[in-house]
Amino acid sequence: MAPRREKKRNLFANAALILRRKRTVATIYVLLRFFVILVMVAQFFNRNYENVFLCALTLILFLLPTILERSLMIDLPNTLEIIILLFIFAAEILGEISAFYTTFQGWDTMLHTLNGFLCAAIGFSLVDMFNREERFSLSLSPLFMAIVAFCFSMTIGVLWEFFECAMDQLFLLDMQKDAVVHSISSVMLDPTGGNHPVAIRDITDVIVVAGGEEIALGLGGYLDIGILDTMKDLFVNFIGAVVFSAIGFCYVRSRGKGRFASRFIPQVVDVLPEDLEPEAGEAPETDPKKQE
Predict the structure, then answer these.
(1) Which residues face 198 on adjacent strands?
(2) CB under 8 Å to 78, separation ≥6 — which residues?
(3) Residue 9, by phi and psi: left (phi above 0), alpha (psi -120 to 50) or beta?
(4) What is the pLDDT of residue 290?
(5) Measured between alpha carbons, how far is 133 from 273 in angstroms, rounded to an integer?
(6) Rounded to whole angstroms, what are the CA distances from 89 to 18, 57, 97, 239?
(7) 141: left (phi over 0), alpha (psi -120 to 50) or beta
(8) 23-81 pLDDT, tens per residue?
(9) I need a surface site. Which of 38, 111, 188, 250 has the fewest CB within 10 A?
(10) Cα 192 from Cα 83, distance rounded (Å)
(11) Complete DSSP assignment for 75-131
């Protein structure tokens, strides 16, 4: 047990070292952490313990980028790391606790698009790690790397939709947000029991019978349960994945000369900057490209 505890201590200590090396990231991290703690305290006094748990989860997620840097021996660009921190804050604190998902119609769409973009960047870095691993003999073309990054991003998007569906079915959370539609078509409405879809148009209201009571939903149409939201989320994830895969393709093809893409693609390093011992009177090297 002792070696495990020591390993965990080292991971968190090294995470702190990385944050001190990246001052801009550290500033954003501290500010977001401060706001999360304020929200946690407020939710605790309001006895909303579910939101307290979400705040605690957010604080843990904030540590993941720096811990991953250490455990995977990669250097996350500042831009990517800041976007990840803001993404976590926007999804958990603003989206869930502050109800931005329902207040702002495009909030969920924006986050899913950004998720597709970021996951494609992570996919590129994973391929780069395999390329540099001595146990593998790989020499991948830029097109193949773009395809792998795209597929990785879409896989993460699909897995997330599986998770949302499971939470909705098991706990009735409505993570897959419903939509109001005015036309439906289903073979289940075929009076002959055949396979012919029957359409109902110009729907203005739906009445639900529950416990012998008729309840008019009053939504101005038919309540679609999640499928349109799922398709929209996957589509915008697709857009984000395609955009970054194209950027990454150009980046690899130009042999890493693109400045924009380099801000989002983690770099594999042999030695992390905080592990270098500077000579007397010298500052530690912080550029991962110079270490290779």
Answers:
(1) 186
(2) 22, 24, 25, 263
(3) alpha
(4) 44
(5) 20
(6) 20, 11, 10, 22
(7) beta
(8) 899 899 999 999 999 999 999 999 999 999 999 999 999 998 888 777 777 888 899 99
(9) 188
(10) 55
(11) E--HHHHHHHHHHHHIIIIIIIIS-HHHHSTTHHHHHHHHHHHHHHHHHHHHHHHHH
What's residue 42's pLDDT?
96
* 183 backbone dihedrals φ, ψ, rounded to 5°: -145, 140
d(CA 244, CA 153): 10
Which amino acid does the sequence have at 163?
Answer: F
Q: pLDDT of 164-178, one tens digit each?
A: 999 999 988 888 888
Three-state DSSP state, 223: strand
For tokens 């946690």, the residue is: 40
Q: Decide if 286 contacts 275 (C-beta within 8 A).
A: no
Q: What is the DSSP letter of 220?
A: S
In degrees to the nearest 10, what's the CA dihedral of 229, 93, 63, 119? 20
Residues in the chain, total: 292
- Here the tokens at position 267 are 């770099």
Q: How many CA atoms lie within 13 A of 56 on its CB side?
A: 8
Residues in the chain where the model's pLDDT stays below 50 = 278-292
- Cα 147 to its chain centre, rounded Å, is 19
> Which structure tokens are listed for 277?
């011992």
CA dist., res. 281 & res. 32, Å (int): 35
Given CA atoms 212, 217, 221, 227 in this order, what sign does their dihedral have? negative
Structure tokens at 32: 């977001």
Rounded distance between C-alpha atoms, residue 123 and residue 151, angstroms: 8
Task: State the Rg of the chain over Cα.
Answer: 24
Write the secondary structure of 171-213 as one string of H (helix), E (strand) and C (coil).
HCCCCCCCEEECCEEEHHHCCCCCCCCEEECCCCCCEEEECCE
Cα 262 to Cα 284: distance, rounded to the nearest angstrom: 22
